[in-house]
# Entry
Amino acid sequence: MAQSAQLIDISGDKMKMLLDFPTIGEPHYAQAIPASIIKEKSLKYHNLAENGNPNVARAESEASISRVGKTVHVKMVAIRSHFAPDNIEGVQVGDTVYFHVTNIEQDWDIVHGFAVLGAENSELIIAPGATRTLKWIPKATGVYPFYCTDFCSALHQEMQGYVRVSPAGSNTPLIANISRKAAAQISKNEKVSHDKHAGGGR
# Structure
């Protein structure tokens, strides 16, 4: 489900682009093969326990933010239709920020994307159950949005958050939290899950 649009040869001293083409929402690039070839190999459910990435956050309660010198690590989860955390403060101009984003969806086709305003590298496309990392260095103070870049649900455009960047050397504490909207959605999801199990899986 990762929609790479470039084929790059990395075998030599310099990377060489072999092919550059769009793949998102373009049916003319589709290929057809007999379903029997992949039917028995298809994975319909991703077990988060099998994610061995050292920066994985398998639940919203495991999301965190930490600083080591001028490096900030954000362990974040993505799930329809929010990120957690989705409000971050205390990042400073010139910090190297690593967003370690885990897609905690487990159904095979629920892909999420991640990008932050001002990043000079590509977006992330994160398959269900996977963790990927984006590096970002803010160059000016301000409030920077981050957002899902891959259509994921009816509330896709609501899937966003913000980083407030302070001047270098400031005393703004490094904190991460979730918005009231996200907290309400979490509470709702937990209630639905509880009611489902209490009702015998209805």
